[in-house]
Amino acid sequence: MEHADTAQGSDDRAHATEAGHAGAEPAIGDGAGSRDDKASRYAVDVDLTNVNTAHSLAAGAVAPGSDVLDIGAADGSMARALRKLACRVWGIEADKVAADVATEACEEVLVADVERIDLAGAFEGRKFDVVLLLDVLEHLVNPQETLASVRDVLAPDGYVVISIPNVAHGAVRVQLLRGKFSYTDTGLLDRTHLRFFDRPGALELVEEAGFTVVDQMTVRSRLEETEIPIDRTSVEGEIAEILQSDPDSETFQFIFVLRPAGRAGNDSPPFMPLRYYQRKLRQVTLDVEALQAQLRTEHDHDMRRLRVQLEASQADADAVRRELTTVTDSLSSSLEAERESRSRAEAELRRVYETRLFRSTRLARAIYARLRSLLASRSR
Q1: What single DSSP character describes residue 63?
Q2: In 3D, which of 53, 34, 45, 104 has the Cα closest to residue 76?
Q3: In this predicted model, what pLDDT tens digit does every residue of 26-64 receive, in sequence order?
Q4: Range of the domain at 116
Q5: Shortest CA distance to 292 belongs to which of 272, 277, 313?
Q6: Burial of 107 (0-12, 13-18, 19+ CB in 10 A)
Q7: 18 pLDDT exceeds 60?
Q8: Quick one: 85 and 192 in the same domain?
Q9: Are residues 262 and 277 both part of a single domain?
Q10: pLDDT tens, position by position, 264-281
Q11: What share of the chain is helix, strand, coil (3-state, %, to 5)?
Q12: Of 247, 268, 289, which residue is a domain's last?
């Protein structure tokens, strides 16, 4: 096993890959412009009300209060979002500059290439409720082996969330038909990608690694909205018809929630309140987009009726977005208050224990040990 350095932060810090949170999403993280290029290249702004980014959708699939392993933690953008949900995050990041930034948000960040370490050994038996591999697998020499190794660090009811860019997006297809295959700094054809997946290929990878898909989402991007320059008006005839008939021609990324195959009771997705609201908001948003598209083609006498429907749908979307924000803030506040309450209780126990009279009494010591055990069990 390759030696893994540890970047010190709030406690210690977890592991990394050469990829970081790479590829499909642009570097739009808060304050990215002021950081080192390596630390900010894959920084993202994880906004739970944005239901069309992989990191936001993945965050919505994480239960509040979870212990999370973020493989390819980059600068800790994801960890910062999950801390608001009272989660504890460990990270793996190959780039030390990025890992140093991530230490501000993680329990531990191990500076290492995930393909050259023993995950279970590196974390000394620690088990995680959720493991994230967001825009990472396409950067690996053997993604199947790495994904399979994640089972060793999953808790009994744990699950994995992965995101993978779709090489069969319409923009890539059109570029190939024009005799071009040009790499870009980030996105579908990120120049650091070693592997490329369409939907069948991604599902085959999951199955061969020993996992089952229990939930799936997509990030959508129109033909002209990727980093590959395509003029939609120039795509006509049979090619346009083929793209319009295939929903995955506008799929930018696949997001899969996985459970180990063969584990009893693991055939259904976990229920997440934030994910519920994200799905609701996504549907309302799609309704708005459909009406907007219809507005562009309807005759003038239908415009007023459609505008009323559009305004109602937009109001619904705004209302659900406010609900999602309220639920997020409420969960974060209540879980933080509970954590502070436990900390105060532990501090009071330590104060009492340190008194001479208390330490001289065998019964009192036994009571103290029992209370500490109860507090520890509640924190898990």
Answers
A1: P
A2: 104
A3: 332 333 334 444 445 667 778 877 888 999 999 999 988
A4: 5-268
A5: 313
A6: buried
A7: no
A8: yes
A9: no
A10: 655 665 666 677 777 778
A11: 50, 15, 35
A12: 268
